[in-house]
Amino acid sequence: MPARLLRSEELAALDAFPAELSEVEVGAHYTLDAADLALVRSRRRADNRLGLALQLCALRHLGFFPEDLAGAPAPAVSWLASQVGADPADLAGYGGRYKTVLDHRGEAVAHAGYRTVGSGDLKRLGDWLTERALEHDRARFLLELALGWLQGERIVRPGLSVVERAVVAARARALDELARRLSAVTAASSEVLDALLVVDATIGRTRLSWLDEGATATSPTAIGAQLDKLAFLRAMGTDGWDLSGLNPNRRHQLADEVRRRTNQALARMRPERRWPALVAFCHDRTVELVDEVVDLADQSIGRLHSRSSHALDDLKRANSRAANDKVVLFTRLARLVLDDAIPPDALRAAILAEIPAERLAAAIEEAESLARPPDDNYFDLLAHRYSQLRTWAPAWLGALDLRAGPGAEELLDAVQVLRDLNRSGRRAVPEDAPTAFVPRSWRPYVSRPEGKTDRHYWEMCLLTQLRQALRSGDVWVAGSRRHADPATYLIPPEAWGKDRGDAYGLLGLRPDPAERLALMRAEFRDGMAKLDDALARGAEVRVEEGRLVVTPIEAEDQPEGLDSLERAITDRLPRVSLTDVLIEVDGWSHFLDCLTHASGATARSADIDIHRLAAVLALATNIGLGPMADAAKLSYERLAWAAEWYLRTDTLEAATSAILSHQLDQPITRSWERDLSRSSSDAQRFTVPVASTTTRWLPRYFGLRHRGLSVYTWTSDRWAQFATRVISSSIREATVVLDGILDNALEFRPEEHSTDTAGWTDVIFALFDLLGMQFAPRLRDVGDLKLYRLGETGGFPNAGPLLTGKADLDLVARHWDDLARIAASLNQGWVTASLLVAKLQAQPRQSTITRALVEHGRAVRTLFLLRYLPDPAYRREITRQLNKGEAFHALRQRIFFGLHGKIRRADPDAQADQANALNLVTAAVTCWNTVYLAEVVDQLRREGWDITAEQLAHVSPTEWHHINPYGDYRFDLNPPTGRRPLRTGTPTSTPQRPPRSPSPKGATDGL
Known about the structure:
- The protein is α/β, with parallel strands linked by helices.
């Protein structure tokens, strides 16, 4: 028998009824139909009727017969008893004769259309599991899939040991099949693959660890280093490897396994398992490096422009005094020239008498040095940085397989000319070199007066325009993931033609746009009537000096007695340390089970639990692994091992989801819901004082000396932060606002979502509407927003003049199917929303479909404004939801206290891990507070407090004053005599990337 996949307590849970069932679940699974009742009522005794009914419903619900019927949830037993004419207590008398129980099981199997498992069924299950194991290798996940397959096939679940053996065998067969499918690649590359695990004397490390190292800066050196890695992989032949037989998800899992294992562990793996994993890693790393070098070049070119622009500002400030002197001198000259009292023939003598010739000559020379080009832009200063560009641009262009979309062919022709110049070493640009891509602002610099083309400006303009084309998708890169052909982002036309009907149904859209547009026009008329009436009253919204003005909403009136209630709750909440919060919440939600080893194995022991909790807390509080090891009296090596192998984005998100699921099961959370499900999202900025590709320099947020990044989070109306992403602070928040909604572990999809002003564009309004959600941002400067006509506007004397544009709904109707295809592609995960939105926003010339999307967004935004402007209660609801996100910001600041709240991790993956660890601990605090809030409320009611639902709706579970995040300190008043021994050099801070070799002490290949 192989090692068990589940712990004994997990086995016990899977062999029993669920501990709790909701009212909906009881109704769905434990309601008997007429045929069921006929079968059950044929039993004379009440206990037999109830027992048979329970076994029948358990089979349908769970797929097996639990041995302990007494452990059935009380609500299910009570509901069944009421249907079969029995008392719940009758169940205690059932099963006195075990043969009766077995006979009832046989009848239930036949009645429900189930069958017992046979050898043929186990073979089919094994074959099916093998295919799934080719997609996923997580043992627990495969076990759950197997249980679902058995139930779907109406096969009574055999013993769990049988299912476990099937999973183990399927995983082994899948590995053999992977090796077979990749045998052609591994046979030709096995030597170079194994060489990756050997220390290379030329670089002083293994090539594997070298390849896995991401860039942390955008310097020419960093770009060159990533290009070297890309060239190394291509020399291995990765571009020619055929991995079509490998499921993409499985490929990513194999590549991740390589990243998480030590060199020793990889070397110990059987070759038929090691080689496919290394092949997957090298393939994925090739794609990642293509994306990296494109992004690094984008940032480098952008930085050259930014620095040149700042240099122009500095130059103007430095020359301001000299320029002012020349203005004064010019004024004196002009007055002399215009003085009618000075005869023309005496003008020169008068000027030289007033201003000596030496002074004029010096002024002319200085003025020539101060003179700027007629357009006064920074392009002349940009040319000074040409040499910086040349350090990496030739190799960069030579490494990329660029492809042109419609309209970008001449740009790629120019790129080929530049490649030829680089290859030949020639300096002069050919007379017939393409120049149509050169914008008007660049032409005075690119074209010299004598008719020749300036090489420096032509090349810098070409790379600048290529950067924009790569952003918009007009030019794409073969072998890239983020900069691939935009056509691949959407559902392929052939698949769309087949699945269009289902996609429309999932989106809640009608194929014919006429009905939807008619509803929008009707909503427009209704909204215009309400706005017109509000303008007539002039209270909440009015027109002043031709400009729309909205009265700011006043602070929401709090329910009477809320202050006293909040004080009473604060006084009764237990004082607790952050460590105890995590331990207690794990006892409820078992979130530590989600922090699985990279190999997929799970383990629960006091030792590993402590180290996983300490590692999470070290990241979330930002104190680092070294200080945490010292404070908790743990081994640093063991703690670093736990962090490296157990804390990943996928495991941290799953653990957070487990915590939030337990929180949302608490009845008190329903007090925080409103009339529909809402969510909001917002960014929180963090200073990053180390070089990183994710950081940007924004003095408004990070001061003049530092750069930083943003952590973007999504918050539900029930105080659950269900997603988090690390993003660049220079990215407009609207670009990412849909990501956490369409892809979150809770699978939460709100009916309405809010952001601040930075979170909206017309494209976002359109996409939310097409996906079946209302986008409701909090807007400022509403007087500057444009309202669009959607239909007839007669009869609205006050609101009519505010409509300064017309939405082209005819264009929307003509491209309705294209818009639905875009929404379906997002809904089904063909493309991330941020990637698609970024491409749409970067297009210099909007395509017809993009214009249709914008027009639809304008119409949807107008409908939203017609509701938003005259309704202060609605605006207050939006603000209330956004305030929940602000409360979470304050809680995270409290938790993230180490190192002055600055992120000191340079690697983007490490930054994402830290953000997710912080989100996990934040969720744990909120969950703990939620549970104890309910306890306090129950206690207060027992004491005679009259607590209303309206009061509870205003109580927040983000209170933190009773929680000590700093840890416990112990004082030993009997220190050892003599000097303390010096340390031996053990690291005291978290390494940027734990080394692959040697393994930390105590590390193993599995657990």
